[in-house]
Amino acid sequence: MSDLSLRRSSVFSLNAAPRRSNTLNLQNFVLVGALLGLVSILSLAYLLPIGFVASYSLKSESQLGNGEILPMTQEIFMYNGERLLVYNVEIEGVTRKLALISSSRSGSVLLDPADPDAGTITTPQRAATLDPAVYLDPHPETFVEAAQTMNLPLALRNTLAVALIGGVGVVISSAMVAYGFSRYRVPGANIMFFVLLSTMILPGQVTLIPLFILYQNLGWTGTILPLVVPHFFAGAYNVFLLRQYFLTIPIEMDEAARVDGANPLQTFLYIIVPQSKAALVTVA
Q1: Chain-centroid distance, C-alpha 202
Q2: CA 16, 22, 28 angle in degrees (round to 5)?
């Protein structure tokens, strides 16, 4: 009797294992599907503004105010030298493309572009209520016009100069200031550090006019110097970030380098910088 019960329990366990495995696979499939759906929705939300910008960049000046997302243009029918707008008009349950000749409060007078000799068609619908017949009409020549209007090589050169020189300046200056705050114990160092951090609270609009007057007196207006030189004087946030990272590096390594004859600059270059690549890249 016991052998029979043991066999039955073994068979039951063998049958239950695949069911449990199938249930887990189904749950994992549903979970992965839900996560992919959520990521897709979030990605679409972030990409929508880029799509709007790309679509509007392909519009002509006349298409900007038509309310369409895509670069659409209303169809035109030339009749006796006149440009007639084409609309989608429903007549007796059938939607037809008709050209508008005239419109009044009582209705609209239309013409069939496919058969203009058939005569006009009168409908009680006014022109404001008609559905315009539009078609996709992108204008990539706007990019050519933009390139011809502005000096793109000069703009690209200035952008690269400001980004590269400013990036180098902010990394060098912030790293050296943070190294001083993290390693040297001088009177009032904490007070100076808190004063530096307090500049983060000051809005940029407050210093905008004084800085402009300063740059004007220095003769820097109309140059890229105001965009580059301030980066060589460190920034409060970058100094704070690097200082906190430098504090995690054991000071015993500095002492070992000093015993080997390294000066403070060599300690900074050969001990601190190689171990702070992640923080330096973040600042850059």
Answers
A1: 27
A2: 135
Q: What CA–CA distance (Å, rounded) separates 236 from 226?
A: 18
Up-side HSE of residue 212: CA atoms within 13 Å toward CB?
5
CA 232 → CA 60, 170, 226, distances in Å?
Answer: 44, 6, 11
pLDDT in tens, 85-119: 888 888 877 888 888 888 888 788 888 888 887 78
Residue 22 identity: N
Q: What is the DSSP letter of 70?
A: S
Per-residue pLDDT of 154-179, as tens digits, reads 888 999 999 999 999 999 999 999 99
Q: 246, 179 in Cβ contact below 8 A? A: yes
Model confidence band, residue 17 (pLDDT cutoffs 50, 70, 90): low
Cα separation, 263 vs 153, whole angstroms: 45
CB 154 within 8 A of CB 218: no
Indicate the helix (H) or strand (E) that contains 173. Answer: helix 152-183
Cβ atoms 272, 179 nearer than 8 A: yes
**pLDDT at residue 13 tops 60:** no
